[in-house]
Amino acid sequence: MQQMFDFPKTMWISQHTIRFAFNEEISQENFHIVQRFNRFLKKSLQQNLIESVASYHTVTAYVTKKIDIDFLQKQWLFMQISSKDDELTSRQLQIPVCYDEEFALDMHRVMEYTGLSFEDIKKIHMSKLYSVYLIGFLPGFPYLGDLDRELFVPRLQKPRTSVSASSVGIGGFQTGIYPLDSPGGWNIIGKTPFNLFDVHRKEVFIFSLGDQVQFYEITKQEFFEIKCKGV
Prior knowledge:
There is one protein chain. Helix content is 26%, strand content 29%. The chain is of the alpha+beta class. It folds into two domains: 9-82, Gyrase A, domain 2 (2-Layer Sandwich); 92-229, Cyclophilin-like (Cyclophilin), CATH 2.40.100.10. The strands form three sheets. A seven-stranded mixed β-sheet has the order 5-13-6-7-10-9-12. A four-stranded antiparallel β-sheet has the order 1-2-4-3, covered by helices on one side. Strand 1 and strand 2 (17-21) form a beta hairpin. The termini are far apart.
């Protein structure tokens, strides 16, 4: 029997902006529900929808005019009963990371907090297939989850004034990559040679919401070789 999901809570933020909120829980299951509802909105609202933005547990829709929530709710119920709803096909991306001490600025802090060795931290970080739950904070910054609980480390109490672009960090239950030089408080454990944000590239951002990400280790020499190619 197909699983049924309740209609989310709604709140009009402005005349042309409405937010749909599911349970305030960050999980794979909740993420898939949000993604499914986002696809439903795009099909249901069509030309009335300017843009929809999904996050951990909400979808914010920008519309050309007021929409009938009661009718939308009936459509959501009908869709779940009558159709299979095509699943979103996510991309799986392999992202190289150099965990050399030159780039892993907070590795010793992470080791001290977790009690894990340098090698264990790398292996655990690379062992998961992460979902891009959210893109924000900076253009193209991917919030990736769920991080293994063994690597749950609080963010820095005093954020750095500058973190270099392409730095890979962990904080709480997430891992992420800085697309630009910026201030930041994540624990930096490595760096990727990939350029996440490039306005001159056909695809400006490497990541899209819902992508699956797997990290793999490279040496410092391999890092600079890939960097020189301008990926």
